[in-house]
Design goal:
By secondary structure, the protein is α/β, with parallel strands linked by helices. The protein is 42% helix and 18% strand. The chain starts with a strand and ends with a helix.
């Protein structure tokens, strides 16, 4: 089967963003299919291609994947208008590519929501070729919950969502809330599969000793309780909550607890400035790291911080990569908001969940983890056991491939 795969933010493990599409494409190839990946260029992703674009495109083979990179540079630091325009241009260029390609199934994954546009167009132009749409965030629910009020933008998102769900032959959702949201808006007989983000069990592994300190970024704390947050530093992440807890810890004299931030985003400069102005020496900020280097850092930390802004739409409607990296690394997870991940942490005893917007409770949990190493170790072992039992990327990738094969054969 020939798969035409659209993911604007595709990256190999050499990038600093999620590699779900890379892993899924590789599994499709292992199962005997061919994959042509249509993607964009970004400051965080690494497609594996080099050299100057020709007619606005880079092409080449990466780990058996036929990659077509549309030269449309993208950054989270871009303005809202610039990012939106980049999304639209990518969608339009993708349609032109899809019209020329021979394929058996078109697969597109958000974000952004405009990722569905090539599938919508090809459903009209090549109606006998199935389109499968993967949803990573519910739109327009999340933008509306985060305060977006522009009726034209929200209306456009609603229309695009409806068209994508109507055009798709099948859908993939990454969390229980996403799955529920998709089913509410999709014709009853359209098959939808839950395939959450997964754990790269070979790359992220529990520490078996002190580790190689030379692999850590300069300035990384050599001892104490090292609690790491990895990923975007944006509005959705609510990282001021961590600094609030850091202030409480500092006031209590707990200099042995370090809060480590690895990543980037539009709010990172403001967070760093707040650290400086309040003298929060227990907070340390580092640049994003490629996955292979990040795994080394995770192996030499003690706690993974699962932080999102207190927005109910996030509770069951997200599937953050960092959570799965944490549990694969055998880290206990400190979670700051309710929802399916907090429920799972409680059920499997692989960390602690605290109420949102409660810096004292957040600090209490950090102190508990620092002062109870035996319990902390048990939580970490439970994390790894959960990763192996339920979120092995290879197992989930097979579920993903099985679903696409079923859709291609006309199954429901």
């Amino acid at each position: 089967m020939k798969i035409l795969y659209f993911h604007q933010h595709f990256s190999t493990p050499k990038g600093t963003v999620g590699t779900r599409s890379y892993e899924m494409a590789r599994r499709l190839i292992d199962r005997g299919h061919t994959v042509k990946m249509i993607c964009g260029a970004s400051d965080a992703g690494k497609t594996g291609l080099a050299g100057e674009p020709v007619n606005g495109l880079r092409r080449g083979q990466v780990a058996g994947i036929d990659v077509v990179e549309i030269h449309l540079p993208y950054s989270n630091y871009d303005s809202l208008f610039k990012r939106a325009w980049t999304f639209v241009r990518f969608a339009l260029k993708s349609i032109r590519i899809a019209m020329k390609e021979d394929y058996d199934l078109l697969f597109a994954t958000s974000t952004p929501l405009t990722a569905g546009i090539p599938g919508i167009a090809m459903r009209l132009l090549k109606p006998y070729r199935p389109f499968v749409f993967e949803v990573r965030d519910l739109w327009p629910e999340l933008p509306r919950a985060m305060g977006m009020k522009n009726p034209f933008i929200l209306g456009g998102m609603s229309l695009l969502e409806k068209l994508s769900y109507t055009a798709m032959r099948g859908g993939v959702g990454l969390s229980p809330g996403i799955l529920e949201g998709m089913r509410r808006r999709t014709p009853d007989k359209t098959p939808i599969e839950l395939v959450p983000n997964g754990c790269d069990l070979d790359l992220f592994q529990p520490s078996v000793g002190a580790g190689d300190a030379s692999q850590l970024p300069e300035g990384f704390p050599p001892d104490g309780l090292r609690c790491v947050f990895t990923g975007a530093h944006g509005q959705a992440n609510g990282l001021d909550a961590v600094l609030d807890a850091a202030k409480v810890l500092q006031d209590r004299g707990r200099r042995d607890i370090h809060l480590v931030f690895v990543g980037d985003g539009k709010l990172k400069p403001a967070l760093v400035a707040r650290k400086a102005s309040e003298g929060l020496d227990n907070c340390l900020f580092f640049a994003p790291l490629p996955k292979d280097q990040l795994s080394e850092v995770m192996g030499q930390t003690d706690v993974g911080l699962m932080i999102l802004a207190d927005i109910p739409a996030f509770y069951y409607g997200t599937s953050p990569n960092k959570f799965f990296d944490y549990i694969a690394s055998g880290l206990p997870v400190l979670n700051s908001y309710p929802g399916w991940l907090a429920d799972m942490i409680g059920e499997h005893k692989c960390g602690l969940a605290v109420p949102p917007n409660r810096p004292d409770s957040f600090a209490d949990a950090l102190e508990y983890l620092a002062d109870h190493p035996v319990e902390r170790k048990a939580m970490g072992e439970n994390s790894r056991a959960l990763a192996e039992a339920r979120f092995d990327r290879r197992m989930l990738a097979d579920r993903f491939v099985d679903f696409l094969e079923k859709i291609a054969k006309g199954g429901s």
